[in-house]
Amino acid sequence: MSNLFHAHGKLVDIARNHQISPSLLSYLYTKFQQAIIKQVGLQNLVNKKQKDHAIAIDETFLKINGKTYYIIMATGYASHKILGLKVSQTRKMEDMLEVFNEAEKNTSKPITIITADAWNGTQALAKYLDRPITISIHKHKKPYEKIVVKRYEYDGAFI
Predict the structure, then answer these.
(1) Which residues touch 74 (CB under 8 Å, ≥6 apart)?
(2) In the prediction, which pLDDT does 5 show?
(3) What pLDDT was estimated at residue 74?
(4) For residue 76, what are the β-bridge partners?
(5) Buried (b) or exposed (e) across 67-92, using 16+ Cβ within 10 A?
(6) How many beta carbons lie within 10 A of that of residue 15, not counting itself?
(7) Distance (Å, rounded) from C-alpha 61 to C-alpha 83?
(8) What does pTM read for this prediction?
(9) Phi/psi at 40 (nearest 5 deg)?
(10) Model pLDDT, residue 43
(11) 110: exposed, middle or buried (Cβ count in 10 Å: 0-12, 13-18, 19+)
């Protein structure tokens, strides 16, 4: 699916590779654009490095022909811009890491704070970055005003 969003190839060829119709692929692309507009807006995509050092990572999903596709986004706290974005069939740590790395490429300073829901992939990302990082976790359960803050520090020594 990443071929579609990075404009590598013709719609018909991409659809054939994924064994779906070109009209379904066009529908997916439209839904993807609508999801971005709904979340923050196309005007917030980054065109220069931002001064953010804190990001929020969240995801939404679309179901297409019974398959779930996640739109994972990292948004800067200061700039309110989308700094990282990925469409994936999973929400694993590797997916979150790709979004985090893209976000960090779009900032002028290293990211030191992540806010996220309680999803395991995002928590694993923070834990295994092998550098100092703070993650603020807001669970989607009562009490909604409760958060969990974790701080990871590393001394460079491996066991």
Answers:
(1) 55, 56, 57, 82, 83, 84, 85, 99, 100, 102, 103
(2) 52
(3) 95
(4) 55
(5) eebbbbbbbbeebebbbbbbbbeebe
(6) 19
(7) 19
(8) 0.70
(9) -140, -45
(10) 55
(11) exposed
More confidently predicted of 112 and 142 = 112
DSSP for 57-117, please give it. Answer: EEEEEEEETTEEEEEEEEEETTT--EEEEEEES---HHHHHHHHHHHHHTBSS---EEEE-
Residue 147 scores a pLDDT above 60? yes
Give the whole-angstrom CA distance, residue 47 versus residue 83: 10
For the segment 108-139, what is each residue's pLDDT rounded down to a tens digit?
A: 999 999 999 877 888 899 988 989 999 998 87
Side chain identity at 136, as an amino acid letter? S
Omega before 143 within 30 of 0, i.e. cis: yes
Residue with tokens 């953010």: 52
**What confidence tens digit (pLDDT) does each residue in 11-57 have?**
777 777 778 888 887 888 788 777 766 665 555 567 789 999 999 99
What tokens appear for 90 in the block? Answer: 């999973």
How many residues in total does the chain contain?
Answer: 159
